[in-house]
Amino acid sequence: MFRNLARPLYKPRHLYKNCVPAERSTLHLRGHSLYFRPNTLSEAVHALAASGGQILAGGTDFFPSLVDRPPTASVVDISGLHELKGVIRDAKHIRIGGLTTWTEIIKTQLPRCFDALKLAAREIGGIQIQNRGTVAGNLCNASPAADSVPPLLALDAEVELVSHSGTRRMPLTQFILGNRKTQRQPDEILSQVLIPRGIENAASTFLKLGVRRYLVISIAMVAVVIEKDSAARVRQARVSVGSCSVVARRLFELERDLIGAPIVGLGACANAAHLNNLSPIGDVRATAAYRRDAALKLVQRVLDSCAGTA
Ligand SMILES: Cc1cc2nc3c(=O)[nH]c(=O)nc-3n(C[C@H](O)[C@H](O)[C@H](O)COP(=O)(O)OP(=O)(O)OC[C@H]3O[C@@H](n4cnc5c(N)ncnc54)[C@H](O)[C@@H]3O)c2cc1C
User: Fold this and answer.
1) What pLDDT digit, counting tens, does each position of 237-287 carry?
2) Do 222 and 283 fall within a single domain?
3) What range defines the domain where residue 129 resides?
4) Do 75 and 119 belong to one domain?
5) Do residues 211 and 300 both lie within one domain?
6) Is residue 61 within 6 Å of ligand 1 at its C-beta?
7) What is residue 134's DSSP assignment?
8) Is residue 6 predicted with pLDDT exceeding 80?
9) pLDDT band at 32, cuts 50/70/90?
10) Cβ 259 vs Cβ 237: under 8 Å
């Protein structure tokens, strides 16, 4: 009975036809707001375009952001899209499905260069959050303190966005524009994150500083990927810092200065000038000056620790 009451007259019929019976129902949230739970990406992009709704994945950012209010728009719950879960490899990329959870990232066997991402995954909330929270949710929420962004930047990640009118890709460096701002259009779903192959054997690590050791929002965090040559010198280096600017940043000048440096004592190569493109703010967690000092110390420590395993 409730299902009939909830079914709107103006919705395209195929949205219901394509869903299995248990998910066919829609719930009135407020006014004409509706709840959809499609089973395929194709159904999801059509439901999104037709309803103009908000995407719900693991809900670990979505629900806290509502505080105690109901959603004001329709909700397209994409958690049933199995095609967006897990990690697959092809000749050019390692592809992380947008709905892959942090627990899956931790449990999946991945090349060494993903160690930083795995370490970040272990620091995202507690185990319950890691079981629900997804890679795409962390990126699309676009918090300056999102822990996955520095490791994914250091992996030169690209994102793929799918809508009813097509698919586009862009580097992660271009996708996140600011605090809670991305290039994603309202009708687009972040379907996968693509990591170019070729640096699988590089060492990588991640370090996060918070006001306590676990279950904390970052004051600063750093991810590093280092590849050495046969003479134990740096062949390739990638360093990124999060929570110290509105969007996490790669330190390209430092990366250039590291090329050819001996692996031993790498941390000493980093100095305050290398952090000039950061613009930390002062807030309840730390002052801007503390963040800048802490970021430099973290960069130096992460370089030393990563070099030790390279
Ligand atoms: C107690 C707690 C602790 C936390 N600790 C941390 C932490 O330490 N570090 C950290 O980085 N984060 C933390 N988070 C935030 C959160 O868990 C992560 O950002 C998580 O990865 C979000 O994923 P989700 O699937 O739950 O996203 P959701 O909440 O479902 O969605 C988040 C946003 O992204 C959009 N979205 C989701 N998936 C897609 C998609 N595929 N395509 C397009 N848009 C999409 C949604 O519309 C929404 O705007 C914490 C959250 C809580 C509640």
Assistant:
1) 999 999 999 999 999 999 999 999 999 999 999 999 999 999 999 999 999
2) yes
3) 84-196
4) no
5) yes
6) yes
7) B
8) no
9) low
10) yes
Query: Which residue's CA lies nearest to atom 25 of ligand 1?
Result: 58
189 Cβ closer than 6 Å to some ligand 1 atom: yes
Return the residue matching tokens 């509105």: 246
d(CA 124, CA 141) in angstroms, rounded, equals: 14
Query: Distance (Å, rounded) from C-alpha 227 to C-alpha 260?
Result: 11
**Nearest of 139, 114, 126, 306 to residue 228 by alpha carbon:** 306
222 plus 186 within the same structural domain: no
CATH classification of the domain holding 254? 3.30.390.50
Q: Residues 258, 237: contact at Cβ < 8 Å?
A: yes
The residue whose C-alpha atom lies closest to atom 4 belonging to ligand 1 is 125
Give yes or no for a contact between 127 and 228, defined as CB atoms under 8 angstroms apart.
no
- 110 & 27 share domain: no
Q: Give residue 172's pLDDT.
A: 98
Please identify, among 59, 82, 105, the residue that sits at the C-terminal boundary of a domain: 82
Phi/psi at 71 (nearest 5 deg)?
-60, 145
CA of 88 to the centre of ligand 1 (A): 22
Q: Is 48 in the pocket of ligand 1 (CB under 6 A)?
A: no
- C-alpha to C-alpha distance for 8 and 11, rounded to whole angstroms: 6
61 lies in the same domain as 92: no
Q: At 282, list the tokens.
A: 């002062």
Distance 143 CA to ligand 1 centre (A): 9
Q: How many domains does the chain have?
A: 3
Final residue of a structural domain among 82, 107, 142: 82
Residue 132 Cβ < 6 Å to ligand 1: yes
Token pair listed for 20: 């299995």
Backbone angles phi, psi at 184, to 5 degrees: -65, 130
| CATH code (residue 129) | 3.30.465.10
The reply to whether ligand 1 has any atom less than 6 angstroms from the CB of 151 is: no
Classify residue 296 as exposed, middle or buried by CB count within 10 Å of its CB (0-12, 13-18, 19+).
buried
Residue type, position 34, single letter: L
* Count of other CB atoms within 10 angstroms of residue 191: 24
With a cut of 70, say whether residue 190 has pLDDT above it: yes
